[in-house]
Design brief:
The chain is of the alpha/beta class. 38% of the residues lie in helices and 21% in strands. The chain folds into two domains: 2-242, Rossmann fold; 243-280, no CATH class. It is built from eleven helices and ten strands. Strand 9 and strand 10 (220-225) form a beta hairpin. Helix 4 (102-112) crosses helix 5 and helix 4 (102-112) packs parallel to helix 6. The structure holds adenosine-5'-diphosphate and magnesium ion.
Length: 280
């Protein structure tokens, strides 16, 4: 669905590339998680996949980005936007500034694409119910909490029903309920065949929902595999991506002599249950 070949990208006036040597092939209907420390290149990669770089912010891209078999660089902006939706990192910046209500805000993208009115209304209603923001529809987009704004930003992309959805830290402002809701929605999207790429720090949720986990470090992809494989990689501490609470608990237990000193630490609930069950 999305194929990146030898992609490097340098911001305008920057001395060094923000991304280099990126090879990626994302299967349709998959959820891919991407983790990496601040400055690793997550936002840059999200924008490259969505065709925003270099189209919107300039800079130099080498290599190719193909979506659904077509080179993204050769699509018009409207065609590109129709293929890939991008939920940007700061929800405040996703708000158009042109609309007085959340309802109109969520419909803004569809309006630009010429979606019929009745269809727009039905889709806004459906997506608002899905994200539990129906009660916000008549509010001003600027009278919302950070978390509410983040859900509105997600809704405004979901409503476009693009085959590919890229989300840059979409749960950073959300409470645990909102965060789980977003991941549950991703599962539904996946079942409907949408290809999802989520840039996110919450390892336990990625472990539970993503098919595949990529690690960005030093401006390139340093690991790529199932979340369980990647989180168990012996290089994980060097990537500064943190660890799951299962790993932390086991490390603590090991430090207190409750677990054997050798052997792999658990990265998932299932592995933790087996590890601690075995220690009983
Ligand atoms: N507009 C920009 N101009 C120049 N350099 C940038 C710009 N935006 C980001 N960078 C640089 O690109 C690298 C990757 O940044 P970014 O993709 O935002 O990382 P992340 O999202 O993982 O925190 C960083 O070194 C950052 O300083
Ligand atoms: Mg970022």
């Amino acid at each position: 669905m999305i194929v990146l070949r030898e992609v490097s990208y340098t911001y305008p006036e920057a001395a060094d590339p923000a991304l280099h040597g990126i090879e990626l092939n994302l299967q349709p209907g998959s959820i891919t998680g991407v983790v990496g420390a601040s400055g690793a290149g997550k936002t840059t990669l999200a924008k490259v996949i969505a065709g925003f770089l270099p189209r919107v912010d300039g800079g130099e891209l080498t290599g190719t980005v193909c979506v659904a078999g077509r080179n993204l660089a050769e699509l018009s902006l409207v065609e590109a936007v129709g293929q890939v939706g991008l939920v940007i990192q700061n929800p405040f910046n996703q708000i158009s500034g042109a609309k007085y209500t959340v309802r109109e805000e969520i419909a803004f993208g569809m309006e630009n694409l010429g979606t019929p009115r009745a269809e727009m209304a039905a889709r806004v209603k459906q997506v608002a119910a899905l994200l539990r923001i129906s009660d916000l529809l008549d509010r001003s987009p600027y009278a919302l909490s950070g978390g509410q704004m983040q859900l509105v930003a997600i809704a405004s992309m979901l409503v476009l029903r693009t085959p590919v959805l890229v989300m840059d830290e979409p749960t950073s402002q959300l409470d645990p309920f909102g965060t789980r809701l977003v991941f549950a929605v991703l599962d539904q999207l996946q079942q409907a065949g949408t290809t999802v790429v989520i840039f996110e720090h919450k390892l336990e949720l990625l472990q539970a929902h993503a098919d595949r986990l990529l690690v960005l470090a030093g401006h390139t992809i340093v690991a790529d595999g199932s979340p369980t494989e990647v989180l168990a990689d012996e290089r994980v501490d060097g990537w500064a991506i943190g660890s799951t609470r299962y790993t932390r608990a086991a490390r603590l237990a090991r430090g207190r002599g409750l677990l054997p000193v050798h052997g792999a630490l658990p990265v998932s609930f299932e592995q933790a249950a087996a590890t601690f069950g075995g220690a009983r």
